[in-house]
Design goal:
Elements lengths: L1 H54 L2 H12 L3 H33 L5 H6 L1 H8 L3 H6 L3 H22 L6 H23 L10 H35 L2 H37 L3 H38 L5 H9 L2 H17 L4 H49 L6 H28 L4 H21 L3 H16 L1
Length: 478
């Protein structure tokens, strides 16, 4: 029941993360323009590369280690302060390196925008969300995130007025992130007392952390190198178009990714206690739930893209609709890869296999991006990333086949795919009846959701009834 409650808390935040951008993106896209969006994305991507180096994989590793020792208060406190010391040192060095990069390697006109992004680095310097994730205290994280998101949206509408306000926009996003991280420290001391760092223990963690750092870097490379290459090979407009399409996909995948984030500490704890039967049960349940959601979302996004893009982004973004036809398939592979990689491989300490999968994907993405971007620009970046993602997912699947009930999973895929395909036809029918507008998209969503879940009830799908049973129990307890 706690796992489901954690999912509900995280899901509430993720739903808000989806809803708020649906409110702000149409406004920001029009105010900053495709060129402004492209410029901000490029700067933000480079700032995040520095964060990637500074964190050295501490978030995933810390989450897992805290879940391992959470039943022993002394070990819990010592583990936290040792890992926090590592993160503070590495991120502190990274902040200094970023400042040197900004002042010595950038043209004068870009310095201010890059300096505003430094607040993101400070946010990572004090980030301890991994500690609460390891404890499965997702309510604290969700409430913090929701508050900060709402404040950020309010400030965007209040202060961002035209294309010259890109500095204000970047500042709002980075400063609110920093403030949000600060709030968690107040909650921290309700859970642990201060302990002196044991530097001998710190040295013991470093090698294991670095093993996780390699796949973390690879993931970041193949999830963002396409934007950098687009900016180098083409222009800010192509970066803006590509980013806009990817942002829509990311909004959708946050819902499926929630299940993985709340399940990782539980599966890691099962593995630590050698409870493989429970681990398999959780993994297969998660895979079934994710498939139930991800398949209709993939085909649903394809079905509503033509009515969504015109009102959501405005003029100049017409090409995004075409990009979504392909990039929507990210939803499936990202959702499944999170289960195979984060929830199973990393929870079970199989960093080497995970690293191999993501490094191969990163190399494939770079090679394909260079070739395809020259030929078909933003669409080339989409295709390269999709192919790389599926390669990594297949490698992970092969290595978790002893934990996953593949036969049962394929049956679920066929079932959900058939219902989703019929739903897609209904969405196209609605599109033909209603002119492109917000109303058309809204009607399509309502029709699609009602049809899909009604069909699941008709065929008595076990996963949908499991969800309903959990909801009933939650209502009774409340």
């Amino acid at each position: 029941m706690k796992l489901f409650k954690n999912y509900i808390y995280s899901l509430l935040y993720q739903i808000l993360s989806v809803v708020l951008p649906f409110i702000t993106t149409p406004y920001v896209s029009r105010v900053l323009g495709v060129n402004g969006i492209g410029r901000y994305t490029l700067v933000n991507t480079i700032a995040n590369y520095f964060i990637l180096v500074g964190l050295i994989g501490i978030n995933i590793y810390g989450n897992r280690q805290i879940s391992y020792v959470r039943d022993n208060q002394v070990e819990l406190e010592q583990t936290f302060w040792d890992l926090n010391a590592i993160r503070t040192i590495t991120m502190g060095i990274t902040v200094l390196a970023y400042i040197l990069f900004v002042f010595f390697f950038l043209p004068a006109e870009d310095i201010l925008l890059y300096l505003v992004e430094i607040f993101l680095l400070f946010a990572s310097l004090i980030d301890i969300s991994w500690f609460f994730e390891g404890l499965e205290e997702f309510k604290i994280i969700a409430m913090r995130n929701i508050s900060i998101k709402v404040i950020g949206v309010f400030l965007i509408f209040l202060l961002v007025r035209d294309s010259t306000d890109i500095l204000i926009y970047a500042g709002i996003l980075s400063v609110t992130t920093l403030v949000g991280q600060g709030f968690l420290w107040k909650e921290l001391f309700k859970k642990v007392s201060y302990r002196k760092v044991k530097w001998k223990g710190v040295k013991g963690y470093i090698f294991d952390i670095l093993k996780l750092w390699i796949p973390t870097i690879a993931i970041k490379i193949y999830s963002s190198i396409d934007k950098v290459l687009l900016g180098i090979i083409t222009n800010d407009v192509q970066v803006g178009l590509y980013t806009s399409a990817q942002n829509i996909v990311t909004l959708v995948t946050t819902i499926t990714s929630t299940l993985t984030s709340v399940s990782l500490p539980r599966t890691a704890n099962c593995y630590k206690n050698n409870n493989m039967q429970e681990l398999r049960k959780i993994a297969n349940l998660s895979l079934g739930m994710v498939s139930l959601i991800a398949l209709p979302m993939t085909l649903g996004l394809i079905g509503i893209r033509n009515t969504l893009v015109p009102w959501f982004f405005g003029k100049g973004y017409e090409e995004v609709s075409t990009l979504l036809l392909v990039s929507a398939w990210f939803i499936l592979t990202v959702s499944w890869s999170n289960i195979f990689g984060n929830q199973i491989l990393l929870a079970c300490g199989k960093e080497k296999i995970y690293s191999i999968a993501v490094v191969i994907s990163a190399i494939e993405n770079i090679i394909l991006s260079i070739v395809l971007i020259y030929k078909i620009q933003a669409m080339g970046a989409v295709i390269a990333s999709i192919l790389a993602e599926y390669t990594g997912m297949i490698i992970m699947l092969v290595n978790v086949r002893n934990i996953i009930d593949i036969h049962g999973w394929i049956k679920l895929i066929l079932r959900y795919s058939f219902i989703s395909a019929v739903m897609l036809l209904l969405l196209h029918f609605v599109e033909a009846l209603i002119s492109y507008s917000f109303v058309a998209t809204f009607v399509q969503c309502i029709v699609g959701i009602l049809f899909y879940f009604s069909m699941l009830l008709v065929i008595k799908d076990k996963n949908i009834f499991l969800i309903l049973d959990y909801v009933k129990k939650l209502i009774r307890k409340s």
